[in-house]
């Protein structure tokens, strides 16, 4: 029998509670502000968009929040997810480091996103909601909410960023197979979409624009709510199930991470793998280095400003304090569509300001090269988003090799790339290029940040 490669938990070991990092923060998260009054928002301000149970989770500072049993029953379709020891990658890199990865691509939708799609659909169903609207980039979130809507009997409408709508037709086909309606954004279906297209009929879209369209539709009907796949506190809460399982699996491997790596766009899969470990450190346990890896073409953590900003381009959402490139910033159309968001989750941004996490940015081509390297020795072809985490983990392993340090590295392989094959075809043909944003456009977007008075 060879050395152990995978670490599996029984269905009975699915966590019964989510972990809320807000309970352990050394400094409270800055409040969400109403853009009209500049005062902290209350539950009534969010009620048009979210059911009350999710609003309560959004503002909760309780360390643990129970996972409803009907949600755990659905999770049994794919959870607990496996954790692997990347022994072949270790050998290829000739590193003394031990590399582990949590694999979220085993979910029905192929990524970590159903971890929050299922509970969000559940709480909306409990509140009598019949329809949900949302946005999606690459389509991981859109297909996950479509899957959840099918299980819960809720109609789902997805506004997909135009460049990804065109790049990834099979993601769209998956959403439609689950019964959702998928619309290219900007679209003619909303007032804001029509305004964007009037200025630029060929606009490639952005997550900020797609959010505005989804919010506009949701706000018009009492039987409709909005669902978000990243950024918000309750989404990051739901994703903590990833790190909680990983903790148990690492104990099975008699290991604990020195470094935790995750890719970052809005922050959901990064928070899922890292927050439980950060929390354990804040409560007096081991403190691993936490590394967020983002695309160089949309570098909110490494180039963005920590400031209050809108979560959407049409300025229909409240103001949150986050690392942002400006709500009007439109990133280039690189293939990691799930990482093309102008802002970063307020909780992730807050941790960066507190010095509890690090951030690095890599270009598209080097991340695809890392993904191919990983696939050829470990067998799993990552999604373009997950390639950033693979790249980050490889860089950490090579650092260990240079320094002669036998550290333990954990990263989140948040989804497979089976719906992203055109990107890999382009990479193999040498057609995939590194894309850069316009510095003047970034400067203009940052100059338009809302003016928020400092608290007295």
TrEMBL record:
Residues with the modification N6-(pyridoxal phosphate)lysine, per the entry, are 113
Listed pathway(s): Amino-acid biosynthesis; L-tryptophan biosynthesis; L-tryptophan from chorismate: step 5/5
- EC number(s) stated in the UniProt entry for this protein: 4.2.1.20
User: What are the record keywords, sorted?
Assistant: Amino-acid biosynthesis, Aromatic amino acid biosynthesis, Lyase, Pyridoxal phosphate, Tryptophan biosynthesis
> So which cofactors does this thing need?
pyridoxal 5'-phosphate
Where do the coiled-coil regions begin and end?
Answer: none
Q: Which InterPro entries match?
A: Trp_synth_b-like (IPR006316), Trp_synth_b_CS (IPR006653), Trp_synth_beta/beta-like (IPR023026), TrpB-like_PALP (IPR001926), TrpB-like_PALP_sf (IPR036052)
- Reaction catalysis annotation: (1S,2R)-1-C-(indol-3-yl)glycerol 3-phosphate + L-serine = D-glyceraldehyde 3-phosphate + L-tryptophan + H2O
What Pfam family does this protein match (any one)?
PALP
State the GO CC annotations.
cytoplasm
Asked if the Swiss-Prot or TrEMBL record annotates the protein with the keyword Amino-acid biosynthesis, the reply is yes
Q: What class of enzyme is it?
A: lyase
SUPFAM superfamilies tied to this protein:
Tryptophan synthase beta subunit-like PLP-dependent enzymes
Q: Which domain of life is it from?
A: Bacteria
| PROSITE patterns xrefs | TRP_SYNTHASE_BETA
The UniProt GO MF terms for this protein read: L-serine hydro-lyase (adding indole, L-tryptophan-forming) activity; pyridoxal phosphate binding; tryptophan synthase activity
User: Which residue numbers delimit the Tryptophan synthase beta chain-like PALP domain?
Assistant: 76-415
Q: Which PANTHER family match?
A: TRYPTOPHAN SYNTHASE, TRYPTOPHAN SYNTHASE-RELATED
* HAMAP family linked to this entry: Trp_synth_beta
Family stated for the protein in its record: Belongs to the TrpB family.
**Subunit record text:** Tetramer of two alpha and two beta chains.
| Task performed by this protein | The beta subunit is responsible for the synthesis of L-tryptophan from indole and L-serine.
UniProt-recorded name of the protein: Tryptophan synthase beta chain
The source organism is Quisquiliibacterium transsilvanicum
